Amino acid sequence: MTTHYLVLSALLFVIGGVGVLVRRNAIVVFMCVELMLNACNLAFVTFARQNGNLDGQVIAFFVMIVAAAEVVIGLAIIVTIFRTRRSASVDDVNLLKY
Amino acid sequence: MNGTIPAPTIEYALLAPMLVVFGAAIIGVLVEAFAPRYLRSAIHKPLTLLTLAGAFVITIWQARTGIPTTPSAMGAVAVDGPALFIWGTILVLAFVSVLLINDEGHFVASAAAVPGSAEEERALTEGATHTEVYPLVLFAVGGMLLFPAANDLLAMFVALEVMSLPLYLLCGLARRRRLLSQEAAVKYFLLGAFSSAFFLYGTALLYGYAGSVDLAKINTALGSVGGQDTLLYIGVAMLGVGLLFKIGAAPFQAWKPDVYQGSPTPITALMASGTLVAAFGALLRVFWVALGGLEWSWTPIMWGVAILTMVVGAILAITQTDIKRMLAYSSIAHGGFLLIGVVALGNNQQQNASALSALLFYLVAYGFTTVGAFAVVTTVRDAGGEAWHLSRWAGLGKRRPLVAVVFSLFLLAFAGIPLTSGFFGKYAVFQAAVAAGATPLVVVGVVSSAIAAFFYVRVIVLMFFSDPAADGPSVVIPGGTWAVGAVAVLATVVLGVFPQPVLDLAHTAAQSLFVR
Fold first, then answer.
1. What are the pLDDT digits (tens) for B393-418?
2. Cβ separation of B208 and A55 shorter than 8 Å?
3. Which CATH number fits the domain that encloses residue A82?
4. CB-based burial of residue B283 (10 Å sphere; 0-12 exposed, 13-18 middle, 19+ buried)?
């Protein structure tokens, strides 16, 4: 019964996606993106089981490494902007528009 | 499964351009770690330029010794005609962009220091500079090389990230207007990470559908797997979102003006040329190789996206008062023109090859012109940095005629006026689209070109026919920028007057289409 896992993965992805759209704090937005990547991992592993090959499990490792690299860069950028503006709210970065 | 794992074979010679670039990037990191500060810049500049030139020479040599007809590296990378052409284009454009990066004063003294703080003051007086820019650029270029050559979706995802992550950082390193620069980095990063999550979930769904992430195997599965269409269609849509975001196609274009405006201008030049070329290569490979059998399903959507992109790009560009934002919207509109070529997938190989060669030519022509245009933007400066507001450009033609003439040439090339490279690029793409029966799309393309021509001409009129302000901006042209301008002018004029050699080259590269 892999369907349950796929439903869970889709739910996690949607929660992450909605979080990116509605949350204000850049760190929380970024955590939601990470949640989406983990939803992808769950889907990959489930499909690996369903398809009967190991590709999906190997891909999950690649995704974890990429996500780790993304965390390093993301936190660096968010910390920089926090130090400049004393705020990590995505609503405050509003100088560039129109 | 009997417990033995066959050793994979890697064709190192075929992957050499990428390996050289990545190797040099790692050496660059070591230089950052071990070389004394006063030596770093002197090591990085020649190292980066020689690496890009060397990788270009290897690419040419590969193209001359014969193009492989099967994917390399266990099917993960396809070094085929279009890939080699795109590699050559990206390497030349990156070389030119690095010449622009080499000039002083574009990058922050210390990115960790808060703007206006004593710490920043100290870094400035010490003459510190972020030489990390060079390895980051090389990593980004390496990702750009892998992205259009990736033959499975996993390699493509990794390439997407290797290309994007250094660019996120580079966006935030502008010396002037640091708040804008940091804001551009945050926006690009959050939206880019969001879109790559979509790309990845799309990959997962296609893997669930086809049982493989290999592009050719997905295409085979299109004909044989039944009853799982939901997985397939949602997967294709999400994959498309990820790729169209990188191109900046509407409705995923919102990041582009902000990021192009806030980033250091040499990095904008690299993004506007190299990233666009790489992303179009990847988009073509995914939609033509993996989803070619699904053409009837995605073509109508792509029509809509192309129309929306052209119209949004052209119309919003009119309202801009900032030169970099205007060029960003122009880049969005050009993305739309290029999407016309993606839709021009016909039903025979000859037609597809001519559409592909038209796209490749367009990418070369647009890449050079756009690097040149951003190079000109770096030269017009106020006391507080580059003069971005259009009103500051008034009367530039009277004060510095040469700069204004060069910039006008680039704008005319963007508009697609005959005798510039932009004309033949547009002509080739539109012709291929008409041959494939996409005439309504071409009509929209021509109309939005006309709208776009309005604001290009408006800038030219502003430069030549209005009086310069008394406190107008100064024009400073460092050596590297001179070279970039000269190369871009040469490319724009030569491709506009004698396009045939490059057209022939693009045609040869496109002849056998993508390998499967």
1. 988 888 889 999 999 999 999 999 99
2. no
3. 1.10.287.3510
4. buried
